[in-house]
Amino acid sequence: MLERDLTLEPSPRRERAAHHLASLGAESRLFQALRHPSKEVREASRRALDSHWFSEKGAIASSQLLRAERAANAECFDEALSILNELVNRHSDFADAYNRRAAVLWKMDRVGASMQDCQKTLRLNVLHYGAWLGLGLCHLELGNYDEAVRCLKMYLSLHPYDVQAIHWLHQCTEISRLAASVKERLPSP
Asked: Residue 38: is its pLDDT beyond 50?
């Protein structure tokens, strides 16, 4: 019934069905819906997963994440980072807090630290598509094109309709292919 409502019903009912599936722990069904041809179904599923991960540690932790998000949106990155540091110290198994901190660190041009938080997020939740995307972008920024390709493929296996990520994947694949071609032509040392 909930799956039918998610895929066939108008928006308000679709949203309720998606959030209800998340609250029941039916993440696998929401991941299936991320592959649905309908953009509305995909977006409802993504919002439900994001909301579920965001609220995983309860109302107080969610409130802190929201404060950090507001600070980051206002480009008060030090404030956002301070809130997120406090949050991960209190909840060391809160995957979304690490992912949000990774995003703030990225905006602060701290790519290595962002990468570490993406990796921590994935140790806690291997299906966290945001962390796969973030890790791929970190590798892209550092010129690790083969790793960027691997991470972007993982992201797209979970979230296959992201046009920008598809573009980045093609870009990384082409750069990696060109680098391998040049390497083949160089004389051995």
From this structure: yes
